[in-house]
C-alpha cells in the first residue's frame, strides 16, 4: 500500500520527522481502494462509519444538507487528506462528503486505526493534528464566507489550495491542477457561477493568475495573498515536533 499513503506521508513529514516504522504502520492501516465518480457521495450525511477514508487522488468536499435539499459545502478535501478521520471516535458523521471530481479513495478500517493508536503514540499525535488543522480550516472559511468579499474569498481558495497541494508534492512554481467545474467552485465560495466567472476575469485581467480549464498558474502570489489576507499558519505546514 506504499503508494496510497505517499501523499499523507509527505504532508506529515512537513510537520515532523516520521520513522520508517511509522510509515509502514500507516501503510498497513489502509485496505482496499475504491473509485468514486464525480458527483457521487463518498460518505453520506449522518451515516454510521466503520472506516475512515483517505483521498489518494481527486477532489471532494464535506457538506451539510437542509431538509429541502439546500446544500452548503464546509471544506474541500485534497489528495493526502483523511476526509473523516474524526469518524474513528464519533462513529457517526454529521456531514456528507461528495466527490467533486473522480476520486480514488483508500479505506482505513477503524479496528486497524485503533491498533495503530495503541502502538504508535507519535503517529497518533500527528493524526490528531490532522483533525486540529481541519478545525482551523473550518474557522478560516467561516470567517471568509461570513465577512470577505468575492475577490477576497476567491483569492483565499486559490492560495489555500496551492499551499496544501504544494505540501504533498502536487504543486510547484505556482502551478497546480484543479479539475472542478465552475458550479462546484461557486458552491464552495458561496457565490453564483456568474459571480465566480466575473471574479476570475478580474484576477486574470489584473495579471494575478492564469486559469485555463483545470490548469491554474499563480503569477502574482503576493497580490493574491494580500487580497485574501492569507496567512498559512492555520495549515500548520512548518516542522515543529509534536
From TrEMBL:
Superkingdom of the organism of origin: Bacteria
Biological process annotations from GO: regulation of DNA-templated transcription
Alphabetized CDD domains for the sequence: CAP_ED
Molecular-function annotations in GO: DNA binding
The HTH crp-type domain, residue ranges: 148-222
Gene3D superfamilies: Jelly Rolls, Winged helix-like DNA-binding domain superfamily/Winged helix DNA-binding domain
SUPFAM superfamilies: cAMP-binding domain-like, Winged helix' DNA-binding domain
Keywords: DNA-binding, Transcription, Transcription regulation
InterPro entries recorded: cNMP-bd_dom, cNMP-bd_dom_sf, HTH_CRP, RmlC-like_jellyroll, WH-like_DNA-bd_sf, WH_DNA-bd_sf
Name of the featured protein: Crp/Fnr family transcriptional regulator
Database matches in Pfam families: cNMP_binding, HTH_Crp_2
Amino acid at each position: 500500500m506504499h503508494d496510497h499513503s505517499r501523499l499523507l506521508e509527505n504532508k506529515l513529514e512537513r510537520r515532523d520527522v516520521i520513522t520508517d516504522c511509522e510509515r509502514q504502520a500507516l501503510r498497513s492501516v489502509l485496505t482496499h481502494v475504491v473509485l468514486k465518480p464525480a458527483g457521487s457521495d463518498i460518505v453520506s450525511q449522518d451515516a454510521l462509519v466503520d472506516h475512515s477514508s483517505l483521498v489518494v487522488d481527486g477532489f471532494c468536499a464535506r457538506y451539510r444538507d437542509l431538509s429541502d435539499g439546500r446544500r452548503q459545502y464546509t471544506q474541500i478535501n485534497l489528495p493526502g487528506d483523511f476526509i473523516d478521520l474524526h469518524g474513528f471516535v464519533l462513529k457517526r458523521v454529521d456531514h456528507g462528503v461528495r466527490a467533486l471530481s473522480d476520486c480514488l479513495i483508500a479505506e482505513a478500517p477503524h479496528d486497524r486505526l485503533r491498533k495503530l493508536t495503541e502502538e504508535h503514540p507519535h503517529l497518533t499525535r500527528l493524526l490528531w493534528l490532522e483533525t486540529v488543522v481541519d478545525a482551523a480550516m473550518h474557522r478560516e472559511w467561516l470567517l471568509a464566507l461570513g465577512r470577505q468579499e468575492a475577490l477576497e474569498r476567491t483569492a483565499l481558495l486559490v492560495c489555500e489550495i496551492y499551499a496544501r497541494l504544494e505540501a504533498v508534492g502536487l504543486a510547484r512554481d505556482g502551478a497546480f491542477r484543479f479539475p472542478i467545474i465552475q458550479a462546484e467552485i461557486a458552491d464552495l465560495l458561496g457565490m453564483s457561477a456568474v459571480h465566480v466567472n466575473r471574479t476570475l476575469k478580474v484576477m486574470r485581467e489584473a495579471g494575478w493568475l492564469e486559469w485555463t480549464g483545470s490548469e491554474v498558474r499563480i503569477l502574482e502570489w503576493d497580490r493574491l495573498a494580500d487580497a485574501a489576507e492569507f496567512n498559512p499558519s492555520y495549515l500548520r505546514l512548518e516542522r515543529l515536533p509534536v
